[in-house]
Design goal:
The protein has no helices and ten strands. A hairpin with a 2-residue loop joins strand 9 and strand 10. The protein is mostly beta strands. The radius of gyration is 12 Å and the shape is globular. The two termini are 20 Å apart. The protein has a four-stranded antiparallel beta sheet with strand order 2-3-4-8, with no helix packed on it. The protein has a three-stranded antiparallel beta sheet with strand order 1-10-9, with no helix packed on it. The protein has a three-stranded antiparallel beta sheet with strand order 5-6-7, with no helix packed on it.
C-alpha cells in the first residue's frame, strides 16, 4: 500500500467533505463520527464533484441530482445514480489523514 498525506484531520468539515487531489485522482474526504472515509470525488451518475454535497448518516449527497452514496461502500443509496464510486483505504496518524489511491476498498476502478 502507498499511503499519501491528504489533509489534517481538523481540516475536514463536520457535515461536508473536503476535496483533495492525490496523484491523478480527485478525492472527497469525509467524516462520520470518529471514522474517516475517502471516495473518488466524482458522482457516477453525472460528472459532478461529490465533495460539494452534504454528509449525513454515513452518506454523501450529490448536490446536482440528489443521489446519495454510502461512505463505507461507495454504493448509491438513492437514485438516479445506480453505479458505485471508488472508495480508498484511509489511515489517520498523529492528526493527519493518509489515503492510498493505488487500491480501492470496493473494487471499483476510479474514472
Amino acid at each position: 500500500m502507498s499511503f499519501e498525506r491528504a489533509c489534517a484531520l481538523d481540516d475536514i468539515p463536520t457535515d461536508e467533505a473536503l476535496a483533495v487531489t492525490i496523484d491523478r485522482y480527485d478525492v472527497a474526504i469525509a467524516r462520520n463520527g470518529d471514522e474517516v472515509y475517502a471516495l473518488q470525488d466524482l458522482c457516477s451518475h453525472a460528472a459532478v464533484a461529490l465533495s460539494e454535497g452534504e454528509v449525513a448518516d454515513c452518506t454523501i449527497e450529490c448536490w446536482l441530482h440528489g443521489s446519495t452514496f454510502d461512505l463505507r461502500t461507495g454504493k448509491p443509496t438513492t437514485f438516479p445514480a445506480t453505479e458505485p464510486v471508488a472508495t480508498f483505504p484511509v489511515e489517520v496518524r498523529d492528526g493527519d489523514v493518509y489515503v492510498d489511491v493505488e487500491s480501492t476498498l470496493n473494487g471499483v476502478t476510479p474514472a
